[in-house]
Write a structure and sequence with these properties.
Blueprint (H helix, E strand, L loop, with lengths): L8 E6 L11 H4 L4 H14 L3 E6 L3 H13 L5 E5 L8 H10 L3 E5 L21 E4 L4 H15 L8
Parallel strand pairs: 1-2, 1-3, 3-4, 4-5
The structure holds 1,3,4-trihydroxy-5-OXO-cyclohexanecarboxylic acid (DQA).
């Protein structure tokens, strides 16, 4: 990066009900709020030379619109995506990922493979660089590390 240039951006998308983190089923999702998670991610990204913007919606269409905008406006180099319940159901979100082709890491606070059988299937996983799940709020930190490592190595051409 040369002087005056904007830092490269990372988009964090949080799906339905994640706005309730902190009080939502704390035995599964922990007590950290979404605000605290986002604040920490901004700090960690800035320390690595990236700007980071988060967006939460309970609506599938709004998440897709935000993802498309990031691509069209070229505001993001990569994405952290916790699609929450849409992970398991949304062909539309899966298709949006395939269309925008931004390097994406799938994130879950809980270990989706150790829960109900319907959570073991992710429609978005095949479009992602990788998946981090089961580490609570730290899943986001690990995913950020993975994404930044990927972007720094400039391996854009090896996208799945
Ligand atoms: C989740 C796991 C999903 O199965 C669930 O629907 C969520 C949260 C997680 O972060 O652990 O809402 O994505």
């Amino acid at each position: 990066m040369t002087g005056g240039e904007a830092p490269p951006g990372i988009l964090v998308l949080h799906g339905p009900n994640l706005n309730l983190l902190g009080t939502r089923e704390p035995e599964i999702y922990g007590t950290t709020t979404l605000f605290a998670i986002d604040e920490e991610l901004v700090k960690r990204a800035a320390a690595r030379g990236y700007s980071l913007h988060s967006f939460q919606s309970n609506s599938e269409g709004a998440l897709i619109d935000r993802l498309q905008a990031a691509r069209l406006q070229e505001t993001a180099r990569g994405v952290l995506l916790n699609a929450a319940a849409y992970t398991h159901t949304s062909v539309a979100l899966r298709d949006a990922l395939a269309a925008v082709r931004l390097p994406t890491v799938e994130v879950h606070l809980s270990n989706i493979h150790a829960r109900e059988p319907f959570r073991r299937r992710s429609l978005i996983a095949p479009l992602c660089l990788g998946t981090i799940c089961g580490f609570g709020a730290a899943s986001y930190h690990l995913a950020l590390e993975g994404l930044i490592g990927y972007l720094s190595a400039d391996r854009m051409r090896t996208l799945p």
